[in-house]
Amino acid sequence: EAQVTQNPRYLITVTGKKLTVTCSQNMNHEYMSWYRQDPGLGLRQIYYSMNVEVTDKGDVPEGYKVSRKEKRNFPLILESPSPNQTSLYFCASTNRVGGLYNEQFFGPGTRLTVL
Amino acid sequence: AQTVTQSQPEMSVQEAETVTLSCTYDTSESDYYLFWYKQPPSRQMILVIRQEAYKQQNATENRFSVNFQKAAKSFSLKISDSQLGDAAMYFCAYTEGAQKLVFGQGTRLTINP
Fold first, then answer.
1. Distance, C-alpha A1 to centroid of its chain
2. Which residues contact B93 (CB under 8 A, 6 or more apart)?
3. pLDDT one-digit tens code per residue, A56-66
């Protein structure tokens, strides 16, 4: 089954304790992204990657890091989480075929609470 | 920068009736894609319908249809014969390619039985 998986689904942590949210896709997609969802703001892009070892900032990258060492994986790293990073996080992946855009496939979301 | 605006934070409709959710966007590009996503309480993001800007014909998916007005930069979603399972948060989104989706603020839709 084609899917994007994220782990963990729920996480409660404390300020300053480094954490990683994993994201993996099994569709051989080139493009992967991280979004955060906050009430009244919709989803906003944090980082994206166009291929292995190619990453770039989205609209809200402060306080986050990413890496893309393998095509299928795109972890999100919070090296020193703060309460303003409490949010719902989504990983997404997609491809372009023949110049046409394909839909984004979203993971199930990770609810993060930073105390 | 591209922006997407959903001016209705909440909407409600009686079961079996029709409801329209509004979305406007701002872009200087001529080639792009627009989407409506549904997010039920499970939080999963589900693609409802998509529209390519170069297509003049409005997209339709069963009970869901859009009114795409390119000159006005408007992209509304019409849900016909509303069902209880349609209750969710709905997001309008814009993209020029695979790198990024720009989302609106969302509209929470309630279906009254």
1. 20
2. A43, B4, B34, B35, B36, B37, B101, B102, B103, B104
3. 999 999 999 99
- B13 in A contact zone (CB under 8 Å): no
| Lowest model confidence (mean pLDDT) among A58-62, B96-100, B109-113 | B96-100
Chain A positions contacting chain B at CB under 8 Å are: 30-31, 33, 35, 40-45, 48, 50, 56, 58, 88, 90, 92, 94-96, 101-104, 106, 108-109, 111
What confidence tens digit (pLDDT) does each residue in A7-57 have?
A: 999 999 999 999 999 999 999 999 999 999 999 999 999 999 999 999 999
The DSSP line for B51-70 is EETT--SPPEETTEEEEEET
Which of A76-79's residues contact partners 24+ apart within 8 Å by CB, and which partners?
A76/A20, A76/A21, A76/A23, A76/A34, A76/A46, A76/A47, A77/A18, A77/A19, A77/A20, A78/A18, A78/A19, A78/A20, A78/A21, A79/A18
Residue A108, Cβ density class (10 Å: 0-12 exposed, 13-18 middle, ≥19 buried): middle
Residue position matching structure tokens 């297509």 = B55
